[in-house]
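Researcher: I've been going back and forth with a colleague about how Sodium/potassium-transporting ATPase subunit beta-1-interacting protein might be arranged in three dimensions. Neither of us has a model we trust, so I'd like an independent prediction. The organism is Serinus canaria, in case that matters for your notes. Sequence below.
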Amino acid sequence: AQTLWVHNCDSPCPSPSQLAALERQVFDFLGYQWAPILANFLHIIIVILGLFGTIQYRPRYIVVYAIWTAVWVTWNIFIICFYLEVGGLSKDSELLTFNISRHQSWWSENGPGCVRKEASMSGIKGLDNHSYISVIGCALEYRYIEVMHSSFQILIALVGFVYACYVVSVFTEEEDSFDFIGGFDPFPLYHVNEKPTNLLFKQTYLPA
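Model: Here is an independent structure prediction for Sodium/potassium-transporting ATPase subunit beta-1-interacting protein. You can compare it with whatever you and your colleague have in mind.
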C-alpha cells in the first residue's frame, strides 16, 4: 500500500513545488531578474530529477533533491533578507540583475491596485527625451509580495524534504526485506547441501 501511494504517477507529473517554481519563473522573467531566473531553472530541473527518482526507484536522485531543498531554502531566505533590506542589503540594488540592468521586480509596477503613470521630463536640460515613471495606489508593496513568494517556496521545500526522506526510507525498507528473503543472496534460503553419493554408500555399509 505504501508503494502504491508513493508511485501514483506513471509518468513525471507536475508537483506543487514545480508548479510554484514555474509561476515564479514567469514573473522573474517579466522583471528581468536574472539571478532568480537561474535559481528557478535549477530548482525545476532538480524537482524533475526527484520525481524521476521516485517513479523509477532511484533513491540517489531523491537524496540529491533532499540536499537541494536545503540550498533552495537558503536562497529564499536570502531573497527575503534582500527585499526586507536586512544586513545592509538594498532592494533597489542591481544585485539580482547581475549589475547589467536597473530592472526591479515585476510586481513593483504591476502589483495589486498599482497605477503606473509616466510624466515627461521635457524642459529639464539633458532629460528632454526621458520620462519619469511613478507608481501609486498599490494595495501591497511589491517587496512584501516577493517575501510571500519566497516564504511559500520555503514551506513547500520543507514539505518536499520530509516527503523525500519518507520515500527513501520506504525504498530502504523494501530493499532490506527483499534481501532478507534471499533476493540478493547467492545461496538460496532452501539450499540443500547434498553429500557425494560415494559417502552415502560408505555410511550405509559400515559394520555394526
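Researcher: What would you highlight for our discussion?
Model: I'd start with this: Residues 1-8, 180-197, 199-206 have pLDDT under 50 and may be disordered. After that, consider the following. Residues 2-105+141-175 form one domain.
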